[in-house]
Design a protein that fits this description.
With 574 residues, the chain is of the alpha+beta class. The chain is 55% helix and 15% strand. The protein is built from 15 helices and 17 strands.
Length: 574
């Protein structure tokens, strides 16, 4: 009877142990389910570690614990409970331990009391068990826990439970990290896509700039080809305006060029009523354009856009509709204006088109400057040719005169011989003889004058000319100090011997050529003081008369001439 009871007690004890094991197993499975369910909804790896640690410590009745996941080259992620004092040392000691050669196998659980060496040294004595794992050869992790609250030590069954929970953690981390990688990849792709769009926009803008530069260069090249074959200023202006109307597709245009030195005006217009201007109106338009220019400077070969061109043009008498204008300066005495209307499609020229207009206007200025130089050279050549023809005619006249003089010399010798013979024949000449000789001499003089273009005048020219205005030396010095011009009218040989300091030599005998070379560009209103006469010739009066004929309004003759100048102590030059 007692034996049966003993067996029954043992059977009941075994049943209770089996039931306890089943209950424990069931509790662990329930905890595993909760952990799996809870972690599946968390996307952040750090949050997963924190939640996992709480869900692990509670069901197992553990007092403290730590979990850490590390990746080579990155800062480790970690979560802990009850180890606040030991965490700094653990965060330093565990990452090198996790970076040992990876096995790639399943998680490995150890009881720290059974370990030795670096593993035991890395953990404080308050921790009893640890699980190590290698996740896909990329992440290495560890879960370390302390003893139970009940005081019981960890056993192998607890390690098996921890291994199962770690597998759930690995799966959750893998999913979270994959999701984070996908999210990061999407973020990177989005950023790259934005960068590509920005690069595409920049490429389009650069392409637009290149297209515009190519268009500008082509327009400049076409304009240069068109203008290079023209040698006349009027033709240049007309061809330029036609080119601009076609290049920009505008309905009207106006081009003005003013030479303030010669007071000449050249203008062309298209698509608008006649816009011809005299010098005063053109100068007024240029003044208003300069006043409204963005760059108010009269620098040679400069171009500037005009603000509010419509108002400027209308105020100068031009018809409305000119909405883009460029003011340009070739030289300080040569200015111009280009004005264009709206495009045929509507609207004024854009900023880029206005810049192209300015660039092409700069090309026009270069061609106009060259053409004006060629026209000046051509004019000088024509004048030199005319003067050469005059010199050739003078030479021919002198040659004819020399021949006539030779004939007269022979006639004089014959007459002299005749007179000598008559004088020998008659001891005393009569009054009729003297009258006869005077008649012969007068006839010879008239014959000489009629024989050549250059003769000796019977009456000096200055006998019938009015006396030129004179000026005293003191007043002449004041006139010269205020910008007047001193002119020496004597021949070049006398001028080289000695002349007043600063005087310009304009010989009366070579007045036309000397005037063109030395006084042709002078202002007609500039005061001029003239000196230079000899005992036999009044050069100064002749030059004063010729300057007055050429419309110089303020020309005076220096009273006393060079002698008075020198006697007053004024400077002279050898």
């Amino acid at each position: 009877m007692s034996a049966n009871r003993e067996e029954l007690v043992q059977a009941l004890e075994a049943a209770r142990k089996a039931q306890a094991a089943l209950d424990r197993r069931n509790y662990h499975l329930h905890a595993l389910f909760e952990v799996t369910q809870e972690l599946s909804s968390i996307p952040q790896p750090q949050k997963i570690l924190e939640t996992f640690l709480l869900l692990t410590l509670g069901p197992l009745g553990l007092s403290r614990g730590l979990t850490m996941v590390a990746r080579e080259g990155e800062e480790a992620m970690s979560a802990w409970r009850g180890l606040e004092d030991e965490v700094p040392a653990l965060r330093t000691a565990l990452p090198p331990l996790l970076q040992r050669p990876k096995t790639g196998g399943p998680p490995r659980g150890v009881l720290l009391a059974e370990e030795s060496g670096d593993v035991r040294k890395a953990f404080p004595g308050t921790l009893e068990g640890a699980v190590f794992w290698d996740q896909d050869g990329q992440y290495q992790g560890v879960l370390a826990v302390g003893g139970k609250i009940s005081g019981e030590p960890l056993d192998r069954q607890d390690l098996d439970t921890l291994l199962t929970l770690v597998n759930v953690l690995i799966a959750s981390l893998r999913h979270a990290l994959s999701t984070a990688s996908v999210r990061q990849l999407n973020s990177d792709l989005t950023k790259r896509n934005e960068e590509l769009h920005q690069a595409l926009d920049r490429a389009r803008r650069v392409q637009g700039l290149l297209d515009r530069q190519v268009f500008h260069l082509k327009g400049m090249n076409d304009l240069a080809d068109e203008l290079s074959i023209l040698g006349d200023t009027g033709a240049l202006l007309n061809a330029f305006l036609l080119h601009e109307l076609g290049a920009f597709g505008v309905d009207k245009g106006f081009l003005l060029l003013v030479d303030r030195g010669t007071r000449t005006v050249a203008s062309v217009h298209r698509g608008m009523p006649s816009a011809d201007m005299d010098f005063a109106a053109a100068d007024r338009l240029l003044y208003r354009s300069f006043d409204a220019a963005e760059l108010r400077a009269l620098t040679s070969m400069s171009v500037s856009r005009v603000r509010d061109p419509s108002r400027v043009c209308v105020s100068a008498g031009l018809p409305p509709g000119l909405t883009t204008a460029v003011f340009f300066v070739i030289e300080q005495s040569c200015l111009g204006l280009v004005a264009l209307g709206d495009k045929l499609g509507g609207g004024a020229l854009s900023r880029g088109e206005a810049e192209l207009l300015s660039a092409q206007t700069a090309s026009l200025m270069a061609f106009v400057k060259n053409t004006r130089s060629l026209e000046t050279i051509r004019g000088l050549n024509e004048d030199l040719q005319r003067r050469n023809d005059e010199l050739q005619a003078t030479i021919r006249s002198l040659t004819d005169a020399r021949r006539a003089i030779a004939l007269l010399e022979r006639a004089r010798e014959r007459i002299k011989g005749l007179v000598q013979r008559e004088a020998e024949r008659v001891n005393r000449a009569s009054v009729l003889d003297f009258i006869f000789m005077l008649v012969i001499a007068a006839a010879l003089g008239l014959l000489f004058n009629f024989a050549g273009a250059s003769g000796i005048p019977l009456v000096p020219d200055h006998w019938g000319a009015s006396e030129p205005p004179r000026v005293q030396l003191a007043e002449a010095v004041q006139i010269l100090s205020r910008g007047g011009l001193l002119v020496d009218a004597r021949p070049q040989e006398l001028y080289r011997q000695q002349h007043a300091a600063g005087a310009v030599n304009v010989p009366a005998a070579l007045f036309d050529m000397a005037y063109m070379l030395k006084l042709g560009s002078q202002d007609l209103e500039r005061p001029i003081v003239v000196y230079g006469r000899t005992i036999s010739r009044r050069y100064d009066a002749e030059v004063v008369r010729r300057l007055s004929v050429r419309d110089h309004a303020n020309v005076r003759l220096l009273d006393g001439g060079l002698e008075a100048w020198r006697a007053a102590g004024q400077g002279v030059e050898p």
